[in-house]
Amino acid sequence: MTDILMPRLSDTMTEGAIATWHKHPGDPVAAGDVLVEIETDKALMEQEAYEPGALTEILVPKGQSAPIGTPIARLTPTTQPSPTTPAADPTGAPIPSATSSAPVDRRPATPLVRRLARERGIDLSTILGSGPSGRIVRADLDTIPALPDTPTSPDIPVTPTGRSADDAREPRAIPFDAIRQSIAARLTESSTTIPTFTATTSADVEDLLTLRTQINQSHTTPNTAASTTPGVRATPSVSATPSATPSATPSATPSTGTTPGTGATPSIGTTPGTDQDPARGTGSIPGMRISLNDLLVRATALALRAHPGINASYSPKDRGQTLLHHRIHVGIAIAAPAGLVVPVIPDADRACVSTISTTTREYVTNAADRRLSTIDLSDGTFTISNLGMYGIEHFTAIINPPQGAILAVGATYHEPTLSNGEWRTRKRLRYTLTADHRIIDGALAAQFLATLTALLENPLRIIA
User: Fold this and answer.
1) What is the dihedral of CA 297, 303, 309, 312, to 10 degrees?
2) Disulfide-capable partner of 203 in 29, 127, 249, 453 (CB 3.0 to 4.6 Å)?
3) How far apart are CA 394 and CA 417, in angstroms?
4) What span, in angstroms and rounded, lies between the C-alpha atoms of 343 and 362?
């Protein structure tokens, strides 16, 4: 008898919830068969069998949780065949081995695809996947008609559950799943154990939005010449250091999105082969659409490179330590149907804007389908939370531990500006840094924000 234990499927996982059992007591199990789908604090993961046998007992039923290392089922290993040759059948036909089984054609597919296939009555072994390495993706199922629904019994009235007869509000209880439970635990930990302060500033992003429009236009217009002159990489300069005053506990939970900017009439030269070509440094891909958030991620990564003390985390080891991270991995808060997730753009300071854009869109799609992997969600050093697409001009975000800071970004807005004695309307963007005061002081936060502002107001530095 072999105990099947709740595995550790992510670096922050402490327990897992059983989403679906694919095998039931008495079912034969081959090595590599999917036994169960486990919902972790980050994603929905499959757990496969490591040895053949028969599932004897399920200890943790569907919908219940168990800590890491707890037995969730028991497996009776298959008896090894005897080395002696089995006796011949009197008819001369060979006697089949009790442990022999037909080979199983198990095509690679995500948990979502397997669930949809079961619901639609589709045999995955008959489908040739169009994904990487032949993986079956959701689009492959959409081309196959589902089997007709089987007759069901008449509807039976269901008595509402989870209501309290003594509560005049008539609440309906919705139990937390593993992801929501993790969100609640981590944000409670953050807001109650991390002393934070916030600093807010804004930038004139009129030129940034114009540059974004030019980049997107260049993706749809073929270039007539190629540049051979190396561009000049500019170093962000800080002309002013805004003051920062420690503030109270953050007041908003981070959410997400990408905020497409609305560009004005192009005013920056676009002659190919010059350092003013807006497509230089973007990794231009035909048909690619760059968002304001993509440029903001790149600018933030460059500002983190200039101020490594922000790209840090706190460690209680010894008398306390500041961990300065050499790599800059920027997390992007995404409001998925299952809850808040923060996939990570690795080495964002070295990634071109088009790479950031492509990766972000893949993350948004995978988050909606619950297909983010633990690698996608691990090792972030800083987080950006953007509510601009909802028209929110300003908010504060809660730090995503163990990171040391988070940037909350609002929507662009028009503001009258006096320039050369004339009043003009310019677009501005307001953003707020929430920082761990144990490792980050107000002056350092102000310097970081000043560098970020200088980059946003001189956007060619972002793609240089």
Assistant:
1) 10
2) 453
3) 20
4) 10
